[in-house]
Amino acid sequence: MGVFPGKFRDRRTDVVCTGYHLSIHSSIVPGEALMRLIRLLPLALAGLVTATLSADDWPQWRGPAGGAISAESRLPERWSDTQNIAWKSRLSGAGISTPIVWGDRVFVTSQAGAGQSRVGPRLGQGADATPRSDAYSLGVILFELCAGSLPHETFRYYFEQNVLYRWVRTESLEPFYQRLAAAGLNAPDALTLSDVISCPGAESCRLAVTQSRGLGRVLTEFFSARPDLVDLVPSGNIRISGCPNGCGQHHIGSLGFQGSVRKVGGKALPQYFVLVGGGVTDEGAHFGKVVAKIPARRITDAVDRLLTLYREERESDTEELGAFYRRIAPALATERLKDLVELRMEDTTAEDFIDLGESQAFDPIVMDGECSA
Question: Tell me: domain 197-353, CATH 3.30.413.10, correct?
Fold first, then answer.
């Protein structure tokens, strides 16, 4: 029951005990942006469990031996709000951890701490990525404005390649933002289409084909100049990988780009496979479909056209970008990009043979080693 930054919710949770098992039922109440400090809540069971039933202590996650197996027999196989319930008690926050059963007590962790928020500053891409010195600034801000917890409890990076501060007091939000601004860490549009996700690419990876972070920087600059396109998409993302290994998870991006190479006039030219319709929903993961292979220098044009198609054909202003491309025929996207795919030698420029973020001619080299991710 995790909550992604930018989609904060306050959770009201019921704890239900069957005499052997503890289940947690949660309803989501929209509104408050908060993440609650963990506290331990003991719940007495004496007199509530029938005399004919008993259970071994369950002192940790996955049980006494760590195998998630109990030696007990005659355990209830079904329970609901009214079936096989010994008692039921409301907690003050979300219960998202393993309960501890010890003797006649159950210990449950609950998230608490009203008046606290989670803040997720957006970090840069490519050459504009956060320099090492900013890590110190992030740490100083943490100690000055967060709720007094240790750094490893309140400050972390996450897959969207931003940083997350937890336990920021509500009254500290404005000075927190001012400190971020002073450190140059107040970029807008976190977790929007313009917040591009990319693997390190050929800049540091021995397996990558293209400089994917260079494309990430170019797209970031493109969206900075086109806020209308960012506002157009209520939900969606762009993910970039420099090779088929997919460390940028391009295959589940609303729009995904995978680095590749083609030969034009006997010379290597950087290009990207263009995928549409990827994403993760309640039904599972959806892999994007390849609709074109576009030279690297034309990717911004491709993105512009794909978003124009979305604007023209979407069912509503709230349709998610990945869902839109899963709904329509991939051939429609292929048709929009058709003329960007073709590139004859006589139509090329010297820049076409230089990867984004590089200054030398594109020269992919196969090297021994592992993916940098």
Answer: yes
